[in-house]
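Hi P.,

Sorry for the delay on this. The queue was packed all week, but I finally got your sequence through. Input first:
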Amino acid sequence: MASGNPVLREKAFQGLPVTGERMTLNGTVTRTALLLVLAVITGGWTWQRFADVAAGGGNLDAALAAISPFMWGGLLVGLVLALVTTFVQRWAGVTAPLYAIAEGFALGGISAVMNLRFPGIVLQAVMLTVGVLAVMLVAYRSGWIKVTDKFRLGVVAATGGIALLYVVDMALRAFTHIQIPFIHETGAIGIGFSLLVVGLAALNLVLDFDMIDRAAEAGAPKYMEWYGAFALMVTLVWLYMELLRLLSKARR
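Then the structure:
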């Protein structure tokens, strides 16, 4: 793997027929911005539905019931679309926007619940996500961060370790009453762990940029800009969720 991102593999860009224009990093970033707009639109709709039910005299349970189909539906449809996009890259021009729409429904519901508990936390997380994306892009394009083999290996290995840790924690919580404490606790260790994961997600953006840049230099076709944008969305969703976790720990 050239990146810690599970959908951004080097072989995804190999052996593709090139006809006409070729992909660029700038084109990929532009399409990523379009996907983010779609996610914000559908996320705003789910958020507003939650707020309307809660403000209309319904309790929290009623508001959650009103958005649950969209949250779970968005997660499941998003997973299916992610798998389709990963295996059939040529369809990314259609499946990537649909993935962003589905993820928006899910993230909008999660964000509405989090903002009810910690007012203002979502705006902070969104601004930080966009800020981190901009800073990492500038750092990469200006050469402030050099992507070497050792850098790539370290980030990929650390990302795999975090992913394995999360899987173990989910299994323990599902089948036992045990949970890995520093993932969820609010003390110095818990906040430090979340800071580490946020930093790792940010570094994965750099690896994503590098992989997309190298694919463009190798002459990948234009439609792969949508695939690259989809891959960036996967990392950005992870970054946003980790920022929500970090900010909620700090609030608590």
